[in-house]
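fold-stage: in
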Amino acid sequence: PASHCNSCAASRGFPRTLGQAKALDGICELDLVISLNIPFETLKDRLSARWVHPASGRVYNMDFNPPHVQGVDDLTGEPLVQREDDKPEAVAARLRKYKDAAKPVIELYKSRGILHSFSGTETNKIWPYVYTLLSSRIPPVLPDEEH
């Protein structure tokens, strides 16, 4: 989930655990939590397509940001590697662990009536709905001359 409150910035994937959610309660009172529901296979495929250039940390995704030449870094020509935790089996295990940890967090915010869930596989299709929600909850920022 991503959360919003007056004194806290929204954050991708936080809180991830019930302990983190309770700690966040001590900092601010949340009034809006967004959960993006993306199919397991979509997440697994996207994360498994990630390859890195170890020396620089440059990240490539074979689906939407591939290197010019398969398997090599665009700038150095050095080989790319797939991190152990980005391999399909490891990704599947990470996603199962995340789902188990996040379930009570989702239930907590649902019980408070502040959870808004959106489902899909593509950012450009989900974002308009998220934007509409946020626009209805967060006042627009006016240029200086209009203050």
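fold-stage: in (second)
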Amino acid sequence: QRLKDEIAEVTNEIENLGSTEERKNMQRNKQVAMGRKKFNMDPKKGIQFLIENDLLKNTCEDIAQFLYKGEGLNKTAIGDYLGERDEFNIQVLHAFVELHEFTDLNLVQALRQFLWSFRLPGEAQKIDRMMEAFAQRYCQCNP
């Protein structure tokens, strides 16, 4: 009888553990969805929200990976964030470009692939920074 009670108790604990994990995952998914919405409205605030809630690390590589996957993100917002002139955003832009593989693609194919991942902002200086980063990566992949 005691063995049955212990088995029932352990089984109960395992079931509760699973539901706790599910709740944590659901909570995390809700926060990520909220972070995406915030990003689409204001990219800097969205990234800040994701970092503050430990959903994203505060490294240019991690943020670039998040933008590269782009799940549920507005491509115009991605372009605006990458085009900013502050030093950290420029590092994120370079990390973002590093995620693209342009080896053995002609210039037009590579440019299409690059521009498919975001929308170019309207400001000439932002476009210039982005195209400069693209050119460096393209030449690196195709010496």
